[in-house]
Amino acid sequence: MTLGPAEAFAALLLLIIAADGQLTAEESSHLDVTLSRMHLFHGYPRDFLPQTFTKLCTLLNEVGTESLLTAAIAALPRDLYDTTYAIALDLAYVDGSIHPAEQALLERLQTSLALPAATVTLLQEATAIRHKG
Question: Which pTM value belongs to this model?
């Protein structure tokens, strides 16, 4: 399976919001709004995101979480590592708390992307503050 940079980014975020076994409307909406505002997705046709998520959901069902995760990490450009983690963390908090499965995937991302502990701590603190109230 081959993913482009934008697909890899979207795949990792989809895996985060699906990690707890429930894909809520709030999570899906938050993901859609977040991605549609990013420069990474500017210049694509309007139907790119819906088509990408259809493709990614099909892949997730066909190959499973581990294979999609591995392919997405391999295809993700290095300059998106910290951005991916920051947005994944934000999405994990959308439903009010981080589910253990989401936490495990966040830890896997941190390790796989070799994010510095100081960066992760700053992102975690900032995200927790944003989601306090």
Answer: 0.92
